[in-house]
Design brief:
Elements (H helix, E strand, L loop, with lengths): L2 E6 L4 H12 L3 E7 L15 E2 L2 H7 L4 E4 L3 H14 L2 E4 L6 H10 L5 E3 L5 H17 L4 E8 L9 H14 L6 E2 L14 E7 L6 E8 L2 E8 L4 H14 L10 H5 L2
The chain binds nicotinamide-adenine-dinucleotide.
The site of nicotinamide-adenine-dinucleotide has 25 residues, from helix 1.
């Protein structure tokens, strides 16, 4: 049976591509495209699927996977609806605070939820490689991260940069308190146990992330550049197919999908 999908934020940069990919996929059925009332006319999908009520769509299609790329507070409301009707969820929204992430984790014990700050294959491979690189370089190498995104992006640093920083900090034996999200003024010498994260914003950059490893007499720079939002949208579609027959338990990630 085709995997039923409800797309949230269907007029958005990500939601519009995901809706189109789902509509074209013979193994999937787009059952609803949800947007806020004032943006409904911007949706470019089958008109009979368009609605401003996730509650109505989810209650009618309880088997559907909700794919959500919106804003943190909207995502939290959407999880509450999914909990009510036992829908599955694939969430790409970034910028969630600790309390909101805690809510996702708690909810994932009741309904299947996958959250990933970046659904591209390339970035998820980098997530896996980072600890190995830290281990081989040893403690002499300073780690820094930079990210560039288009001028409309609402949150900073990017969810991907935060996840990279957390993975690298763990690998170096640092805590979250060692992450330095911007520098300004007389900051003194760089402490050894620090990872800096810098955000640039402008134009139409889909998403660039560079991880620097500065050592004595050399440095490594590893850059991932997303050329198109399709790479994230393809990941979300793949994740929706994967989660369709999963049970609740832990908050799933793209790693679970890629290693399946
Ligand atoms: P966007 O602003 O283009 O799209 C968000 C859409 O949600 C808009 O169309 C908006 O009208 C809609 N929306 C807002 N409130 C709503 C509500 N109450 N009900 C229904 N729809 C509502 O943003 P975007 O560029 O598509 O990014 C969305 C999120 O996805 C951001 O958090 C971004 O960082 C994240 N993102 C994640 C990945 C990933 O791979 N995980 C990739 C790209 C973007």
């Amino acid at each position: 049976m085709a995997v039923q999908v409800i797309v949230m934020g269907a007029a958005g940069r990500m939601g519009s591509i995901i809706g189109k990919l789902v509509q074209e996929d013979k193994d999937m059925e787009l059952v609803a495209a949800v947007e806020k009332e004032e943006s409904l006319s911007n949706i470019n999908l089958k008109p009979n699927l368009i609605t401003s009520s996730l509650d109505k769509a989810a209650s009618k299609y309880k088997e559907a996977v909700i794919i959500d790329f919106t804003y943190p507070e909207v995502t939290i409301n959407n999880v509450q609806v999914a909990l009510k009707y036992h829908n599955k969820m694939v969430i790409g929204t970034t910028g969630l605070n600790e309390e909101q992430m805690g809510f996702l984790e708690k909810s994932a014990a009741k309904i299947p939820i996958l959250w990933a700050p970046n659904m591209s294959v390339g970035i998820n491979v980098l997530f896996e490689l980072m600890p190995k690189i830290v281990e081989m370089l040893g403690e002499l190498y300073d780690v820094e991260i930079s990210e560039i995104h288009h001028k409309f992006k609402k949150d900073a640093p990017s969810g991907t940069a935060v996840k990279l920083a957390e993975i690298l900090a763990r690998a170096k034996g640092f805590g979250k308190e060692n992450l330095r999200y911007c520098r300004q003024g007389i900051i003194g010498e760089r402490p050894k146990n620090e990872i800096g994260v810098q955000s640039l914003r402008g134009g139409d950059v889909v998403g660039d992330h560079t991880i620097y490893f500065f050592g004595p007499g050399e440095r490594i720079e590893i850059t991932h550049r997303a050329h198109s939002r399709e790479t994230f949208a393809q990941g979300a579609v793949r994740a929706a197919k994967w989660i369709n027959d999963k049970r609740p338990g832990k908050l799933y990630s793209m790693k679970d999908v890629l290693l399946a």
